[in-house]
Amino acid sequence: MRAAIIAAALSCGLAQGATAQCRQALALGLDVSGSVDLREYRLQLDGLVAALNDPAVMQVLLAQPGAPVSLLVYEWSGPDDQVVLVPWTAITDHDDLRDISLTLAQAERRVTTPGTALGTAMQFGATVLAVQSRCWKRTLDISGDGKSNQGPRPRDVRDKVATGDITINGLVIGADAPAYGDRRQSDIGELSSYFRAEVIAGPEAFVQTALGFEDYQAAMTQKLLRELSVLAIGALQ
User: Fold this and answer.
1) Phi/psi zone of residue 228: left (φ > 0), alpha (ψ -120 to 50 degrees), beta?
2) What's the predicted TM-score (pTM) here?
């Protein structure tokens, strides 16, 4: 099943890569492990839709229709549980964004395998990005709310991926506001340090933080602008 999903994503990427230039390939990996409940799942998916349709993000995405950003979105949890929600899609106009948004809005929470296989999720992202060699820049964007506890160590995967020209950024999601007390700042600081040490790699790689799933939309919007704006502005000049 996993092999078929990867093959479908790769074939779509090959077909698009052969027909058009691409200024950036961006693969978004969303954490849907057991720690993510249905409410948090919807906040994550709906937050991504809102971020992609933010006016500033849309302006950057659509800045160069002749050399578009190509986007792929996938979910990840355990070692054998990575599913592509949006295959490689070149964003050339508002209709492309509308179709991506509709697909994400209609996605339903699956029953996923237990565990947080962050290293495997990174391997999957690097695999789907490998076919986008015609793109000027390739970026893997991993969201997560916890440390890896299954599969290969993220650091080992990162060190292999970092030998190429793929940048890996992280979006760390902290706990939602508790009923009493508040350790969210210290907790998210620890997880951010883990992502910096184990996950991110490549030129100008960074970690964005969301203080709970309620903050996911704002964090993803900032992250997309940071990932996309420099390249778009440079190309326009």
Assistant:
1) alpha
2) 0.86
Does the domain made of 25-183+193-236 have the CATH classification 3.50.40.10? no
The tens-digit pLDDT sequence of the chain (237 residues) is 444 444 444 444 443 433 458 999 999 999 998 888 899 999 999 999 999 999 999 999 999 889 999 999 999 999 989 999 999 999 999 999 999 999 999 999 888 888 899 999 999 999 999 999 999 999 999 999 889 999 999 999 998 887 668 999 999 998 765 544 455 566 788 999 999 999 999 888 999 999 889 999 999 999 999 999 655 554 444
DSSP letter string, 167-235? EEEEEEE-PPPPSS---HHHHHHHHHHHHHHHT-BSTT--EEEESSGGGHHHHHHHHHHHHHHHHHHHH
Element (H, E) at 34: none
Cα–Cα distance measured from residue 29 to residue 8, given in angstroms and rounded to the nearest whole number: 17
At residue 204, φ and ψ (nearest 5 deg) are: 60, 30
Q: Where are the domains of the chain?
A: 25-183+193-236
- 78 and 115 Cβ atoms separated by less than 8 Å: yes
If you ran DSSP here, which 8-state letter would residue 201 be given?
B
* Burial degree of 196 (CB within 10 A; 0-12, 13-18, 19+): middle
d(CA 68, CA 136): 10
CB 192 within 8 A of CB 210: no
